[in-house]
Design goal:
- Helix 8 runs parallel beside helix 10 and helix 9 (183-210) packs antiparallel against helix 10.
- The chain has a two-stranded antiparallel ribbon.
- The model is unreliable at 1-18, 253-275 and 282-288 (pLDDT under 50).
- It is 63% helix and 2% strand.
- The protein is built from eleven helices and two strands; from the N terminus they run H-H-H-H-E-E-H-H-H-H-H-H-H.
- With 288 residues, the chain is an all-alpha fold.
- It has two domains: 2-79, no CATH class; 95-249, Up-down Bundle (Multidrug efflux transporter AcrB transmembrane fold).
- A hairpin with a 6-residue loop joins strand 1 (38-40) and strand 2 (47-50).
- It starts with a helix and ends with a helix.
- Keywords: Membrane, Transmembrane, Transmembrane helix.
- The chain crosses the membrane at residues 96-117, 124-143, 155-177, 198-219, 225-249.
- This is SSD domain-containing protein.
- Residues 259-288 are annotated as: Disordered.
Amino acid sequence: EAWRRAGGSPDAAAYAPGAVRAFSESGDGAAVEASGGVVREGGGGAPIATVVQLLVEGYGAREMLSLRGSLEGLGLGGAAFVHSDFDVFFEQDATIAGYTLASLGAVLISVLGVTLLLSAQPAFALAMGACALSSVVLLAGWMRLCSVPLSSLSVVPLLLAVGLSIDYCTHVAHAFWEAQGTPGQRATRALAARGASVSLGGVSTALTVSLLAFSGTAIMTTYHVMLSGVVLLGLWHALIALPAALLLLSPAGGGSGDGRGGGAVVSTMQRSKAPPLPARRGSAKELA
């Protein structure tokens, strides 16, 4: 550093004293320099940088961060750094988990807020949030089952799962809230009114993404696996899990009478009894 500030350029013999000079003159030192391990000023002056090549088995994001931590512990600052041609890919692997959790949290909070604002029903918003969270958790298991790693490709469908799950479940939940009768009757009527439409929407989406299975690219095949899982889990929550949960959580009585309080609604429409006809006067033959 001193000779650099002074503008000088000492020769290699003066700059590399003792063991360093001996090593540079040895066969091993010549081999290291021949492999590009020593960078000299002007191509033949004093050494200004060295390159140490490490062969790390299973090198990935964790090993990259471990090597960086080791260098930081030496207190060398910016004088030494770790570099690999694949670090650009490992950088996303090192940060994708935190980014995914933060994004999922923001999406779930936004969905809960908008659902509560539009429905003015806290129970309805909580039901939608529970379905969305359950879909994301089960989709993570689906990724494990299908050997799909968490990456920049799979995180996009994972975030889309929240919106698509709400899209499937909100129709059935809204029909349940508007239906009248006991909880069992309301669940049955909600499925009868919206179940077919929700099923057709899921089937049409599944048929659309099935074409991606014939592509040979990693992007398309990843989207096919992820979106297929989103549709499957969304339909399962909308047609099976959500009606069952609403059936169990809705009270059997004590509702407001309009089908929204969870209680049974008793219909006041009853068949009225017709008044008796007046007796007719006539002969016994006519009366008979």
